[in-house]
Amino acid sequence: MLQNRLRTIHGGTLAALVDLGGSLAVASTGRFATGVSTDLNVTYLSPGGREGDVLTGTATCDKIGRTLAYTSVIFTNSKGQLAARGSHTKYVAATMGEDGPYVVPAEAVEELEDDETGKSRN
């Protein structure tokens, strides 16, 4: 575990997880490309993440517009208490084509499903 001097999870680790979680939240809308970060904020609400502790992160795409996507990530401990929350704004205009957002082609999804099951459709 990446710890700070107080032996709790390092704040930079949570910030990196907000970055990743925000990107995955944008990807969950079906976009193949998730854009670039324009803003990232983390609020640490209570100490947490000591060695052996379990923190759960939940990422949500709150709003996605023509140019920006707004996401939020919350971290709770094993008791369900809020330990930290983050927000992540992404510039997504470059992820748009003439017909809408770039999405994963259906053929690629089928290939991924084949790889997961180990079965070939051919």
From TrEMBL:
It comes from Geosmithia morbida. It holds the Pfam family 4HBT. It comes from the Eukaryota. Belongs to the thioesterase PaaI family. NCBIfam families: unchar_dom_1. One of its GO terms (molecular function) is fatty acyl-CoA hydrolase activity. Residues 8-83 form the Thioesterase domain. This is Thioesterase domain-containing protein. The keyword Hydrolase applies. Keywords: Hydrolase. The lineage of its organism: Eukaryota, Fungi, Dikarya, Ascomycota, Pezizomycotina.
